[in-house]
Each structure stands twice: as structure tokens, then as C-alpha cells.
Design goal:
With 179 residues, the protein is mostly helical. Helices cover 78% and strands 0% of the residues. Helix 2 runs antiparallel to helix 3 and helix 2 runs antiparallel to helix 5. The radius of gyration is 18 Å and the shape is globular.
């Protein structure tokens, strides 16, 4: 991106603020709809696809981290944009699954149940938090505000990686209970 004006920067910041609230609220509203929408049997495969998306996102985040540590900015940029796109695809797929299928209860018992719910709850809470951080990180990178980008990714990266990895773990823990 070329140099942006102060007014453009304010507009982008406002958009990021709106999206940081609108995305989690929209997901919560869509998940709260009790009436399921029949989108077909193909939606039963979405949790498995989401597990793959989260796995690939986790790998992309690690490769992107390694690339920037090696000062390979071009590879870092490509890989992180791939991770961002994968996260966006995951979000759409996740919503499609949950508006068309009942939630799957976790069937584990004992200590594993506590582990599952700790991971699930921390994953959900941090997935809400990370939206703003990721949007800001991408915006700062694309607008060439590298110092601001570096500051925000100190928070965005570990949270995003945690959300991505715990998404895989939660999926693996609940996958035996999908019908």
C-alpha cells in the first residue's frame, strides 16, 4: 500500500473497530439461532474440514514466524496472508456448520472432560479477542506501518497460534462424538 492520509487511517481504524465487534457478535447471534437451516448432508463434513483448516493455519503461522525471523519478508507476507484467508474461510465454514447442525456434546468423562472444557472455553474467548489484533496486524503490515505491526504482533501472534492449535486439539477431542 502507498502512503495513507490521516483521514484514511482514521477510516481504516474505524472499520477495524466495527469489524472487531461485529464479527464476534454476528457469530454469536448466528450460533444462537435455535432453528437449524437445512443446507444438506455435506455440512456434516465441515468439522473435519475445519480441523484441517486449523491445522494448516497453525503450520502457516509457524512458517510465517520462521520466515520473518530469517528476514524473508516476501515469504512471511505470503504465508501470513494465506493464514488470514484460511482463518476467514474457517469462520464461514464454522458458521455454516453450526447454523445447519445441532451442537455435538462432548462425551468424555473424568479429568479429560475438564481439560476439554478448559481448552474449549479459552479457545472461544481468545478467538474473540484475536479478531481485533489480527485485523490491526494485517492493516499495519499492508499500510507499511511496520513498527506498529511489530508491536501488535507481539500479542496477535501467540494468541492466534494458541487459538489455531487449540482448535485442532478441541476438534480431535470431540471428533469421535460427531454423528
Amino acid at each position: 500500500m502507498s502512503t495513507i492520509t490521516h483521514q484514511q487511517q482514521k477510516s481504516y481504524q474505524k472499520l477495524i473497530n466495527i469489524l472487531s465487534i461485529a464479527i464476534p457478535v454476528a457469530v454469536a447471534v448466528l450460533l444462537g439461532i435455535r432453528q437449524r437451516i437445512d443446507l444438506g448432508l455435506w455440512t456434516k463434513t465441515l468439522p473435519h474440514i475445519n480441523g484441517v483448516i486449523n491445522s494448516v493455519t497453525s503450520i502457516a503461522l509457524i512458517i510465517g514466524f520462521i520466515a520473518i525471523k530469517q528476514k524473508n519478508i516476501g515469504l512471511h507476507r505470503i504465508i501470513m496472508l494465506i493464514a488470514f484467508v484460511l482463518g476467514s474461510v474457517f469462520l464461514v465454514s464454522y458458521v455454516l456448520y453450526h447454523v445447519s447442525n445441532a451442537s455435538t456434546p462432548f462425551g468424555g468423562e473424568g479429568w479429560i472432560r475438564s481439560v476439554y472444557f478448559f481448552l474449549l472455553i479459552s479457545h472461544i474467548v481468545l478467538s474473540i479477542v484475536v479478531v481485533r489484533f489480527v485485523l490491526l496486524a494485517v492493516y499495519y503490515a499492508l499500510s507499511n506501518q511496520i513498527e506498529r505491526h511489530k508491536k501488535i504482533v507481539k500479542w496477535a501472534y501467540p494468541i492466534w497460534l494458541y487459538v489455531s492449535v487449540t482448535g485442532v486439539i478441541v476438534y480431535l477431542m470431540i471428533s469421535p462424538y460427531y454423528s
